């Protein structure tokens, strides 16, 4: 399942391959979300982050976080048992 990409920072698509990867695979809820929050704080504002997770609850957690915090998910995908989330740091 893929959520469509949107990036309000520019009119062009983000360079998904250039994202800083946060590997939270194997971590159970809420650790993937906490790893993402640490990465958002550690990188310069605007840095594209990609979080990898294997916990099925991360799908709900990341979407809820985006909705409640106002920090949008730019892209979300599920590939087999791995979930991937893209968002910007420092926003």
Automatic annotation (TrEMBL):
SUPFAM superfamilies assigned: SirA-like (SSF64307)
Entries under Pfam families matching the protein: TusA
Domain UPF0033: 22-46
Name this protein carries in UniProt: Sulfurtransferase TusA family protein
Biological source species: Microbulbifer taiwanensis
């Amino acid at each position: 399942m893929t959520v469509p990409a949107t990036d309000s920072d520019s009119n062009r698509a983000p360079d998904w391959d250039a994202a800083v990867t946060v590997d939270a695979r194997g971590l159970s809820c809420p650790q993937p979300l906490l790893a993402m929050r640490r990465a958002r704080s550690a990188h310069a504002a605007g840095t594209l982050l990609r979080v990898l997770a294997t916990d099925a609850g991360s799908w709900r957690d990341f979407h809820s976080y985006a909705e409640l915090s106002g920090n949008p998910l730019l892209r979300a995908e599920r590939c087999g048992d791995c979930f991937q989330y893209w968002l910007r740091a420092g926003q």
